[in-house]
Amino acid sequence: MTELTDDAGFLLSRASGLVARATNAALAEHGLRVRHYSVLVLACGAAEGMSQRDLACRLGLDPSQVVQLVDELADAGLVERRPSATDRRTKLVAGTPLGQRVRRQAARRATRGQQRPLGCLNEEEQATLRALLSRVVDSAG
Amino acid sequence: MTELTDDAGFLLSRASGLVARATNAALAEHGLRVRHYSVLVLACGAAEGMSQRDLACRLGLDPSQVVQLVDELADAGLVERRPSATDRRTKLVAGTPLGQRVRRQAARRATRGQQRPLGCLNEEEQATLRALLSRVVDSAG
């Protein structure tokens, strides 16, 4: 490997940055950035909500980063912390009705925004890209 | 898009983070992190060296970030700033002989390190991934 243009790490970093920038721009109207959005999607997607520990694990973030993101989403009324039904010591982060609504709108915007950097690939190629990336992410456990 | 696991932006961010972490671990022995390494590869790859402005553009970084990375590489004796032969006002960042040697060793380590997160894909799949990502990066200009 002598060229960065053939380096998977470099390409991943650049492509990831391009898509994150486009997603941030698409989400700006909701006052969200891509990390808030990821937390919101997970919090809204789990029936009972998700612990901050699980959020950190799923997102590959430090727990302290997740606490801040959840604080900001809670201040905006999009998520709330609820005690777990099975373990009262654990707090679960769950989407509020407003959060669910914002998530649906934000998802449409984010998907459209991502098509700016990804639109050079057709649908099948984008599906292939997602499938390959999914395997890399899943294999990390 | 209701699931993050089907979101290209999320998958890119997670996969990029996994590969960057593995590359950083592989490069630690050289005292380099992945961004230093990228600058070193570009500086060593261009016959005359590369301006800081071009480095920033190629790497998708702010010029101020590039200045700091170049300073650190120069302090380690791996690159040097030389006046351009065609425009004396422009300084080009070029690899030193030591930098060239370190780059070759670091490239082998980085490639091996990346196989930890990417090794779940066979060679053909990795080539497909790189080709798709290259098109996304190139189309951003």
Structure overview:
The structure is a homodimer of 141-residue chains. The relative contact order of chain A is 0.14. The first copy, chain A, is globular, with a radius of gyration of 17 Å. With 141 residues, chain A is mainly alpha-helical. The mean pLDDT of chain A is 93. The first copy, chain A, has one domain (33-139): Arc Repressor Mutant, subunit A (Orthogonal Bundle), CATH 1.10.10. In chain A, strands 1-3-2 form a three-stranded antiparallel sheet. In chain A, helix 1 (8-27) packs across helix 5 and helix 3 packs across helix 4 (63-75). Chain A has six helices and three strands, in the order ααβααββαα. Chain A has helices at residues 8-27, 34-45, 52-59, 63-75, 97-118, 123-139; strands spanning 50-51, 79-83, 91-95. At the A-B interface, helix 1, helix 2, helix 5 and helix 6 of A face helix 1, helix 2, helix 5 and helix 6 of B.
Annotate the secondary structure layout.
The structure is a homodimer of 141-residue chains.
Chain A (H helix, E strand, L loop, with lengths): L7 H20 L6 H12 L4 E2 H8 L3 H13 L3 E5 L7 E5 L1 H22 L4 H17 L2
Antiparallel strand pairs in A: 1-3, 2-3
Helix pairs in contact in A: 1-5, 2-4, 2-5, 3-4
Rg calculated over all Cα atoms of chain A: 17 Å
Number of strands of chain A: 3
Number of helices of chain A: 6
Mean pLDDT of chain A: 93
* Secondary structure: helix percent of chain A: 55-70%
Name of the CATH first level of chain A: Mainly Alpha
The named CATH superfamily of chain A: Winged helix-like DNA-binding domain superfamily/Winged helix DNA-binding domain
